[in-house]
Amino acid sequence: MGKSRRTVQIVILLLILVLGGYAITTSVSGSNGKPKEGDKSPSFELLGLDGQVHTSDEYKGKAMVINFWGTWCEPCVKEMPALQAQADKWKDQGVQFVGINVGEDQMTVDNFVRQVGVTFPIMLDREKNSVRDFGISPMPTTFFVSDTGKISTIHIGQLDLDTLDAQISQLAKQP
Description:
alpha/beta; Glutaredoxin; seven-stranded mixed beta sheet; 5 helices
């Protein structure tokens, strides 16, 4: 009886060591799958406030500004007017803005969007699949994606009008 108990303890210890080694190795090597500048942008398939399911393929060939935000996030709320101003400025120059709301219900997001006057597409990531795919933490986080689908810049934190304009100008010049 004591021998089988010891065998079980050894097996559990070995399992813990293997899992711990795997966790440390993936953490140190950075193979967590989080996209970085120069990588192809992850795809998305999300419900829009318009009631339609939208995919990243709809915007193929366009430069994109993808902003992850929430109404509960004060910096997200503060930067929304700047995003809308830049969306208006760049819409005729092939730059597509997409707002991806993280985890909130449609009514909350819809009320906020109407109150602030946001007209660019807003998608709902209730299950946080895109948050996982894009490796979002913290918010707001904005991805600037070239017309070839490559991530040009990732900006973590609140954007102001000038920084946003400079990033988009640079994005629009990319081949």
